[in-house]
Amino acid sequence: MVRRVRRLPADDDTCAWIQALPPLPPARRLGGTESADCIVIGAGFTGLAAARRLATQRPNWRVVVLEAQRVGGGASGRNSGFVVDVAHWQPRLGVEGNQRLVRLARFGIAILRELVEAHGIECAWSELGRLHGAVGPIGQRHLVLAVRREYAKAVRPFPGEPAPATASEETP
């Protein structure tokens, strides 16, 4: 049974990075019937990575990616090109869970780095620096506490790496 979609998901089109671009041509629409060995739904980071992996692991397969709006146009396209290994601390995961997230993120970054190098992608790749900002006294207190407590715990245990600076070392 084929159902027609009457409306697409709401998407945040207020991103300054996207608004700074010239107008994009209309997205291509699926016309007619397609057949595939595998269909990937969604063309953000995860969907495109899965489709690429399928294509390399199963070169004889026809892999089709379906996207409701525009390839890379959702949250993946609004991230400004930043890829980080330590995101926000997730209290419910505890130290071990957050360490697993860091390892997973670093694995993903290593794969991305290899792809950029292998394909000669000119993207000004840099792994230097990280900035965590805060707005106002409440945001600053939250940031200082996060660095002093949980954030440092999530990063510190990796052998051979220096411990991250504490908030008192970074804040005058």
Number of strands: 2
Mean of the pLDDT scores? 79
The total domain count is 2
Strand content: under 5%
Question: How many strands, what sense, and barrel or not for the largest sheet?
Answer: 2 strands, parallel
What do these coordinates show?
- With 172 residues, the protein is mostly helical.
- The protein folds into two domains: 16-78, no CATH class; 91-170, no CATH class.
- Helices cover 38% and strands 5% of the residues.
- It has five helices and two strands.
- The protein has helices at residues 16-19, 45-57, 94-118, 136-155, 167-170; strands at 38-41, 63-66.
- A two-stranded parallel sheet has the order 1-2.
- Helix 2 (45-57) links the parallel strand 1 and strand 2.
- Helix 3 packs across helix 4.
- The protein is globular.
- Mean pLDDT is 79; it is low at 157-172.
Give the gist of this structure.
The chain is mainly alpha-helical and 172 residues long. The protein has five helices and two strands.
SSE layout and pairings?
Layout: H1 16-19, E1 38-41, H2 45-57, E2 63-66, H3 94-118, H4 136-155, H5 167-170
Helix pairs in contact: 3-4
